């Protein structure tokens, strides 16, 4: 405890000295400084640094190990067998992130973020007018404790369990995670935890993560592995003659398929080398393309087969190939319906006209009758006058 407090006071004193240097220069300062962290071997760590100044300062990362004879050495992107990644942006101010994966005990030590905007800061012979300001953080890499994980089945349920031996710090809780989503968590301080799933292995395959909360946290994986549960994207596909047909199958289960294959009923295995068939497979998805579809040759059932270390699985896709004229059939049907309707109307009108002719004659005779009456009335008036 005393050594840890002394270390923290030393880091604080160094930060104060760096801040004093920045104040004296009046051009560069830190907005955010990296924070000390504890991590386990095989874990990863990320440190963040942010500086401001005019002009915008450059940021570098340096490292000093725990060996008393070791001195600071600059880190660069791709160092330590490509385990070190450094990302920096210079827009209005400077930001930089260093991340180290697959940590080992040799990664323990002091990491220093340095910033400077002096034009001669990297000159080999000139001394910079403004010194580099710095901010430090300790990274403690602790040997990973032994963790055992297993899956058991009982009464239609899956029981996932984890147990850790000799944790480096007290446990403050547990958490179960699947596909980035927290399934359940608690505040129990025990060295074992379990999670129960209702259902079969095939329905819940995947990678589950158990986390023992603490400083640092301890995590382990529980894998529910099954043979491929292959399904067709569409169980029935349609294509036009001469076009390209596309059949797709996928595997939603874990682990991924290592080998995909396609075959056709009555034909056997299909290969890329055949010329008309193109097979593209990657991980849990496979695609079969059939060039220049033919009604006679290509209509039928196709089988996709996936294999991994736990077994095989397959699915069936039915392909129907239509003639190019098939697209015109709906239009021709509409035209035929219109022709039939016009014919019916024409016949109806043709039969209806003879019945209407007498009505027209009767209508024409009415005025004649009226004229005769008028002449009769005129003769009567003439006789009366005489």
Automatic annotation (TrEMBL):
Keyword Signal: yes
Region described as Disordered: spans on this chain: 354-386
A Pfam short name: Ig_3
Residue ranges of domain Ig-like in the record: 43-131, 145-225, 228-320
Superkingdom of the source species: Eukaryota
Keyword 4Fe-4S: no
Signal sequence interval, chain numbering: 1-26
GO cellular component, one term: basolateral plasma membrane
Keywords: Cell membrane, Disulfide bond, Endoplasmic reticulum, Glycoprotein, Immunoglobulin domain, Membrane, Receptor, Signal, Transmembrane, Transmembrane helix
Membrane topology, as annotated: Single-pass type I membrane protein
Compartments, as annotated in UniProt: Basolateral cell membrane; Endoplasmic reticulum membrane
PANTHER family according to UniProt: BASIGIN (PTHR10075:SF107), BASIGIN RELATED (PTHR10075)
Protein name: Basigin
Organism, as annotated: Cyanoderma ruficeps (rufous-capped babbler)
